[in-house]
Amino acid sequence: MSQFDYDLFVIGAGSGGVRAARIAASHGARVAIAEEFRVGGTCVIRGCVPKKLYVLASRFADEFREAEGFGWSVPEVEFSWSKLVAAKEAEITRLERAYSSNLEKSSVATFPSRAEITAPHTIRLDGGRSFTAGRILIATGGHPVKPAVPGAELAITSNEVFDLPALPETMMIVGGGYIAVEFACLLQRLGVKVTLIYRGDAILRGFDEDVRRVLTEAMGASGIEILTRTDLKRIEADGAGRKVTLTTGQTRHVGVVMVATGRKPNTAGLGLEKVGVEVNAAGAVAVDDQSRTTAPGIWAVGDVTNRVNLTPVAIREGHAFADTVFGNKQWLADHRLVPTAVFSTPEIGTVGLSEEDARAERGGGVTIFQTSFRAMKATLSGSGHRVFMKLVVDKVSDKVLGVHIVGEGAAEMAQLLAISVKMGATKADFDATMPLHPTAAEELVTLRTPVR
Question: pLDDT for 226-237, tens place per residue?
């Protein structure tokens, strides 16, 4: 009989925590998991899944408008925000039940409660119950933060935007990352007049410069106002709306202000200092490449570690931890060449190095192939939609270092291209691949002349 109540206690039932719990249980471990809100975490409840559903809903605006070019007569359409919110809620509730059911089938004990580490190997729930565990996994994710400006409490975040009682006529979105541009694009198509402000020179810092430029131009063409080198100074109540003062001296009156200026790991109130778990300067749990913290018997995975803050990465980290610690199958989650997508409209799919990072890493030994063309669908629809594609290639080895796509289906293409890039495909391998016609993706294997 073990001296502990459980072999593993997981704090946080998001994607990483749930995967770790189920895999550990499959290896015979006695596992418990605690979650203070809803099983599924940020991605399922208030992140990737509902966001993608809203993105898909918003793109029907383009579909209805463009159908006429293909011979369809579309009657006047009407959008219901309340119906979309209800449909979203039904779907995430279904997914939450599926997650909970899978934990139950794996014989994982689930506690709907906040949990705190009170001593080595000891966890206390909100109600006062305490348990001991041979190992503890922290998988508490992160939360959106608001800037320290007067009136910040009058703004909403990505947590609240999903369940607004009604869509405002106007909205100001503060930020230039994934969340800001995705919501700017989808809300504009759902009928909201959007202004996006960002303190930097261009949106999507860290992405390839050409990708940033192409998306900025497309967002502007769709009617989204983008103000760069601009930040919030103050927010004030303005009747039912908000009066916003900007650092440029401008004032704007909008219905809602949404801040998407970053997220912070959920480490407060976990009792980490009591057991010697180090938190780094970014507020994240410090871990090694095996997700071990600085305290014996405690690991951490997912956004709370602030490594690569993407759901599939958290899942891999949780799986690697459980296999290594409980399954005698030692492996590491690989944080290199992680494909990513921005579900803006047009969407972005990318894997590997940007041109800027490749040149910084390899000097002048980089060749660039790229193209921009009118999407086939646009030839009849009359829209201005274009597709942008770019290959970053090492001059010496001929290896494809990065692939960057902006346009319809970009995310799906990037996922498949990630296999090739991960395997070390060369530009010659791309050239030798037979094109599939007529597709946008065929352009990736027909690019012959470098642009620089």
Answer: 999 999 999 999
pLDDT digit string, tens, across residues 161-180? 999 999 999 999 999 999 99
Question: Using one digit for the tens of pLDDT, what is the confidence trace for 355-393?
Answer: 999 999 988 899 999 999 999 999 999 888 899 999 999
55-65 average pLDDT score: 96
Instruction: Return the pLDDT at 382.
Output: 87
Write out the catalytic residue numbers.
437
Q: What is the 3-state secondary structure (H, E, C) of the chain?
A: CCCCCEEEEEECCCHHHHHHHHHHHHCCCCEEEECCCCCCHHHHHHCHHHHHHHHHHHHHHHHHHHHHHHCCCCCCCCCCHHHHHHHHHHHHHHHHHHHHHHHHHCCCEEECCCEEEEECCEEEECCCCEEEEEEEEECCCEEECCCCCCCHHHCECHHHHCCCCCCCCEEEEECCCHHHHHHHHHHHHCCCEEEEEECCCCCCCCCCHHHHHHHHHHHHHCCCEEEECCCEEEEEEECCEEEEEECCCCEEEECEEEECCCEEECCCCCCHHHHCCCECCCCCECCCCCCECCCCCEEECHHHHCCCCCHHHHHHHHHHHHHHHHCCCCCCCCCCCCCEEECCCCCEEEEECCHHHHHHHHCCCEEEEEEEEECHHHHHHCCCCEEEEEEEEECCCCEEEEEEEECCCHHHHHHHHHHHHHCCCEHHHHHHCCCCCCCCHHHHHCCCCCCC
**Encoded amino acid at 215, one letter:** L
The pTM assigned to this predicted structure is: 0.95
Q: How confident is the model at residue 103, as a pLDDT? A: 96
Helix (H, G, I), strand (E, B) or coil at 398: coil
Nearest to 412 by CA among 52, 69, 44: 52
The candidate with the shortest Cα–Cα distance to 12, out of 273, 342, 357, 269, is 269
